[in-house]
């Protein structure tokens, strides 16, 4: 059984942008990549940098501390393939971005 959680209103994340959302005691990085929402864990595995505050281009986010690159669709780390972040199944319902965890 999945546990769904509403994170943020769709209107709060413009296309081509992302941000950190704190909910239920956790930090998530939410991105609007070409009109599709993606959610990954907010902390970079290198030094804990807030990925939601990173430079976002295409569907890649770059950690603001040391520049590690992550694909927001999968959580894969392009800079160090052995250090991905968790990506969450995401859907939009009633104007909200939801994740299944």
Using the CA coordinates, give the radius of gyration: 12 Å
Number of strands: 10
Note the gap between the termini: 10 Å
Instruction: Give the neighbour order of strands across the main sheet.
Output: 2-3-4-8
Helix content: under 10%
Number of domains: 1
H/E topology pattern: EEEEEEEEEE
Structure description:
This protein is mainly β and 101 residues long. The chain has a single domain (4-100), classed as Rieske [2Fe-2S] iron-sulphur domain (Rieske Iron-sulfur Protein, 3-layer Sandwich), CATH 2.102.10. 0% of the residues lie in helices and 46% in strands. It has strands at residues 4-9, 18-23, 26-33, 36-41, 55-57, 60-62, 69-71, 87-88, 90-93, 96-100. The strands form three sheets. It has a four-stranded antiparallel beta sheet, with no helix packed on it. The chain has a three-stranded antiparallel beta sheet with strand order 1-10-9, with no helix packed on it. A hairpin with a 2-residue loop joins strand 2 and strand 3 (26-33). It starts with a strand and ends with a strand.
């Amino acid at each position: 059984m999945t546990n769904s959680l509403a994170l943020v209103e769709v209107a709060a994340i413009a296309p081509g942008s992302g941000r950190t959302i704190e909910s239920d005691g956790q930090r998530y990085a939410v991105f609007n990549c070409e009109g599709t929402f993606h959610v990954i864990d907010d902390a970079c595995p290198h030094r804990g940098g807030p990925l939601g505050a990173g430079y976002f281009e295409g569907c890649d986010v770059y950690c603001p501390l040391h520049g590690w690159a992550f694909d927001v669709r999968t959580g894969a780390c392009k800079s160090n393939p052995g250090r991905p972040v968790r990506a969450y199944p995401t859907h939009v319902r009633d104007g909200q971005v939801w994740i299944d965890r």
